[in-house]
Amino acid sequence: MILVNNRDKVEWREGMTVQDVLDAMGYDYALITVTIEGTFVPEHDYETCTVPDGSKVGLFHLAHGG
Amino acid sequence: MANGKINITINGIEATVQKGSYLLQALRDNGVAVPTLCHHKDLTPSGTCRLCVGEVEQRGKKKLVTSCNFPVRGEIAVDTESERVETHRRVLAEMYLGRWPNVPLIQEVAAICGATDKEKYRSELTDENPKACILCTHCVRACDEFIQERILDFAGRGIKRHLTMPFGEVDPHCIGCTSCAYVCPTGAIEVVDDMNHPVDPQMIRDFGMRINAEMAMLDKDQCRMREVGTANIVDVMDAYDLLPVHNYKFGSHENTKNIDSKILKARYYTQDHPDGCWKGCSMACAKAVDGFELRTGPYKGDRVVVDGPEYETAAAGANMGCFDADFIIEWNFYCDTYGIDTISFGTCMAFVMEAFEAGVITTEHTGGKELKFGATGAVMECMHEIAVGEGFGVEVGQGIRYLKEKWIRELGADADFLQDIGMEVKGLEYSEYVCKESLAQQAGYTMAVKGPQHDEAWLIFMDMVNNQIPTFEDKARALYYYPLWRTWFGLHGLCKLIWNDIVPLSNKNYEPQVAAKVPDHVEDFFRFYEGMTGEPLDEEGMLAQSARVHNLQRVMTRMLGYGLRKDDMPPYRAVGPVTAEEYESRAERYNKQLEELAGFDTKGKSTEEKMKAIREYRMDQYNRVVDAAYDKRGWTRNGVPKIERLKELGIDLPRLVEIIKDDQE
What we know:
CATH superfamily of chain A: Beta-grasp domain
Strand content of chain B: 5-15%
Strand content of chain A: 25-35%
Distance between the termini of chain A: 34 Å
Structural class of chain B: alpha+beta
CATH architecture of the largest domain in chain B: Orthogonal Bundle
Distance between the termini of chain B: 68 Å
Number of strands of chain A: 5
CATH topology of chain A: Ubiquitin-like (UB roll)
CATH class of chain A: Alpha Beta
Largest interface: A-B, 26 and 39 residues
Largest sheet of chain A: 5 strands, mixed
Strand order of the largest sheet of chain A: 2-1-5-3-4
Order of helices and strands of chain A: EEHEEE
Helix content of chain B: 40-55%
Helix content of chain A: 10-25%
CATH class of the largest domain in chain B: Mainly Alpha
Strand order of the largest sheet of chain B: 2-1-5-3-4
Number of domains of chain A: 1
Radius of gyration of chain B: 30 Å
Number of helices of chain A: 1
Oligomer: heterodimer
CATH architecture of chain A: Roll
Structural class of chain A: alpha+beta
Shape of chain A: globular
Number of strands of chain B: 11
C-alpha cells in the first residue's frame, strides 16, 4: 500500500512507477511536484522511477488560477 | 537507457546526457567551453553565428553541426577540438573581427578562437563602433518569443542585412518593453527614457525579463496561458470535481468537453496576442473571438469581436447547465456590452434555475420563461430584459439576496432551502469554484471582506488535494498569509497571474509548504517594488502593508452594519450536500467521511439521516476553522478586529476605535 499526501491509499504492485501512482489517482495536472519519502522526483523520471511498497508519496498540486 | 538518458562521446570521453537535449548544453554540462555570439539561455537556439560548431560522427559519417540547435537523439561521437572545427571557428572569428573590430564581445570570442588579425578581413563594411549591431538576432527573437510582437527583424540580404522595424519607421505597436535592449550583447539598442521614473529601472528589467523567459520557455508545458488563457482551468476543475455544475450541486459533467479550453482553442479563439493590459507583459492571457455572429438581442446578425471567454465565464455556463460554447460566447458579449458581471449573473441565474426546477417559482413568475438548467434561450431573454429594465430580468438583476427575500416574503417560499442554495455571502454572488471539500476555501470565500470572490484566498488545491494544511491552525495560517498577499497585489495595482500561473523551475527545490508560495516570484515582486520606490520590502513588510488595509476594510464593513461572524456564514451548499440527489451523487465520499472522521455508523441509515449527520459535522468543522482564522488575524470570536490589533498596525485612530469598541469581547 502507498500513502499519497498523508491521506489517500493506493494499492501497490510490483514495478509500480511514479506515473502509475499519478494515473491511479487520476492526476494529470500540469503543475505537480512529486516526492517519495520527502525526496523530490524530477518529471522526466516519472515513467521509470519505481515506488517501493509502503512509501509515503507527495503529489503536490501548485495552485494557479483563482 | 533508463530515465531518458543517452551515452555519447565528447572529445574521446564517454558522457551521459539527457536524450533530446541540445548538444551545446550537453557540451557545457560536461565542462567543454564553446564560443558563441548568438546563443542566449532564454531564447530558442538559432544557429546564426555558427561559432558553436562541433564535428559529429554518427553511423560512420562525420559532419559539422551547430551545437546550439543540434538535438542529441542517438549515440554520437562529437569532437570540438578537431582541426576542421578549429579552422572553421578561427576563420569565422577573423571575419567577425574584420567587420566589428572594436566590439568587446567580438574581441573576446575572437581571442578564444585564436583570431587576432583585425586587418585580414577589413573592408568597406567595417564598423568601428564599439556598440555596433552584430546581427546576433537576440533582439529579434526576444521581440517574438518573449513579447510575441515580432516588430524587429532583419531587412536586406548578404552585406546589406540590417536590423529594422517595418518600413524603417518606429512601429506604433512597439510597447516599449525594452526586452530587445536587455538581451542586446553589445549595447547597440539603448533605452533612452523611463517614463514612469522608477528609482532603479535595471532592477525592474531584471524582474521583467525573468518572467518573459519563463513565459517563453515554460508556459507551454504548464498552464498554457498564452495558448488558451484562463480557460485552461475549465479542464482542470472538471477533472478534480471542482467545476460548478447546476448551481454548485456537482463538480463535473460529461458535457464539459463542449466548453473546455480544447474546444475554445480549436473553434473559437482567434487572437493569441498580448492585449496590452500591462505593457510588456508577455503572458497574453486575454483571448478573443473575432467575427462572431450574434443570434439574439439588439445586435442580432452583427459580426462582433468578443473579449473572452475566460474561465469564470465558461464555468458560469456550466453552473447554469449551459454546455454550449456558442451560447457562452454570445452571453459573454452581451454581459460586456450591458456592463453585467458574468460571475454574478451566472451564479444568480443558476440559483433561479434551481428554484424553478424545485417549484419555488414557475413560469407565472418568470414571464413565461422555462428557466430550467440548460435553457440557453431563456437565459438570453432574461439578460436582454435586465438591459432594458423589463419583466423578470429586473428582479434577476438585483441578485440572489433580493430574490430570496422577495420569494420568502411574497411566495411563502421555504426560507431554509433558499438560504441553503442561494450562493451569496454579504450580498455578493460566489465565484465559480465548488468548495464543499475544502474547509480553507469555504472560509476563504466567506471571510473575504468584499464577499465570496476567490481572489483573497484560493486554497482548494493546498487543502483538498494536497492535504498540505491539515489542522485548523495550518488552515488559519494560510487564511492569514494568502489573503494578505493577494490584498498586496490589489494595493499596488499589480496582476496576480504572473505570480503562480507560471512557475519557475527553481520552485521544485522547495519543500511543498514553501513551494506553494512560489517564493522566487514573491521575491521578484519585492524587487519590483524596490525598483519602483527605492524602498526594500520583505515578507514581514508586505504583510504589514496589507494587514493595515485589510483591517481598515473590515472596520469599514462594521461601520456599514456588517463585519460580524453572522456575515461570514456560508450558504450550506458551499459546505456540503443540500439535497438527497447531491448526497447520493457522491455517496461514497460522504459515507467515508462520516465513518472515518465523524465517527458516525452509516449502516442502515437513510440518506436523510446521513445528510443530517454530515451537515452537523461539516458546519462544526467550518466554525472551528473560522475560530482559528479569526484568532490568527487578531479578531474577536465575532469577527471584529481587536483594538490591540489596530494598535499593533498603527491604525488605532479614534474614529476607527469608536466603530468597533462595543464589539470587543
